[in-house]
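Input/output pair, single chain:
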Amino acid sequence: MADPLGLRLKKKILEHQIYHYLSRLALTQDKEDFYNEFAIVLKALHKFAGPNKSAVENVMMAFQRKHPLTELARLILQKRLSKVARERLASNFFCDWITEAKKREKLEEEGFKAPWFFVISPTNTCNLNCYGCYAHEYEKGQGLSYATLDRIVKEAKELGVRFLTISGGEPFYYRDKETGKDLWDLAEKHNDMYFQIYTNGTLLDKKTIERLAKIGNIAPAISMEGFEKETDERRGKGVWEKINKARQDLYQAGVLQGFSVTVTRENADVVSSDEFIDNLIAKNISFGWYFIYIPIGKKPAVELMPTPEQRSKLREKIWEWRSKKPIFIGDFWDDGPWVGGCIASGRKYFHINSKGDIEPCVFIHFAVDNIFNLWKEGKGLREAIHSPFFFSIRRKQLEENDNFLTPCSIIDKPEILREAVREHNAYPTHKGAETIIEGKIAHFLDDYSKRLDELTRPEFEKMVAGEYDSSVVKLSKTIENHRRKNREELEIQEKTAKESRIKKQNKEAGLGKV
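Output:
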């Protein structure tokens, strides 16, 4: 066991150094001054990186190439973040990642690999009524208590997870009925965690933003559908104006902020335009996420799904922007080659809904475990991540999906979800959830997934063959490594989970050690 006092001391020393370097960068006056100082800081950071030296070396290479993410770092440090926000970001991401490396290594030696993050939806209540909302059919009401949220966060930290995403409903609507506590209280108590909150932005008034600025470890990602026309059509008249006011106030307060977009057939061309992304950069947005519309939730409509051609165009634009634009963008579908396919089912993330059901993904509304039931049995998040249901989806991805440009087990390889739900008797987590795996929607997805594979497979084969490789990044090698690691990690985790179940069964049967 690592010495807790020693770890805390190591973190304090590291934090002191990091804060010092960040202050130096933040006080630079222009681009040239920043880049000169950044070169000095990177060399110094390399000395403290320990087992993460390769990550710092990658940053150094990007800096030398003047990658747009280097310019993003300048904008964030010089203009966009307050002192509190930049120190919390540095401490909870960089410092904890280094100081807690031993904890993650020990867990991996035990056959457990924690996901990058997971999503919690503490409430399903919302002040808007957007058509096509994926979460609309969940039960409304209190949702998870503050005590439940607090316990989940504590468990996450024990597993080495330091980043959580909060969704809903509208998260800023949440308030615990018994204690009156809210998400600010949670973030303040767990100030060694970093929280991203998906929000519609309409409740981000100045008082709310002042609290965010004071705490420093919450980054809101405001949902939008394009420009004013597209956003107000789906979210309601006046929403565009409100979120633009919130964005300006967030910038003035020094709060890191992002965006999220649901891509539909109707807005795909708008949200994949240079005009759209340039407008966000001009509004001091630092990151954003693209989601493909999934026909679940409120009045699911397959005609809203972007066409395979629109998805391919979106991928091309996002990959182009990464080499040109100072903004971090993620696309949970089209980035499959970079992240090894689907990241759900505990491989890199999962979802806990407002009833405590533990779902493979925020868009897969089926479960076999509930956090409250697991706690009653003396179990927790670790056992949920190692559930046979989650393993089944991951195993089927290995065996049935060789195209990382079609990563989704809901719409790209729909037979994977159907088989896993049937084999493990997974229950729908709300009324109507089963429509995604049967009937008209299922028939549509069979045709859609076939057309998508036909369109993307030739392109993915080029990636595997090295035609997308550059002198800096070898995408073919990345794909090869992910394929190997996906299989190796799953096999180790399946073996560990099986041994744990056998050991428990023997103990309950009074057999002791075998």
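Residues 475-508 form the longest helix (34 residues). The radius of gyration is 23 Å.
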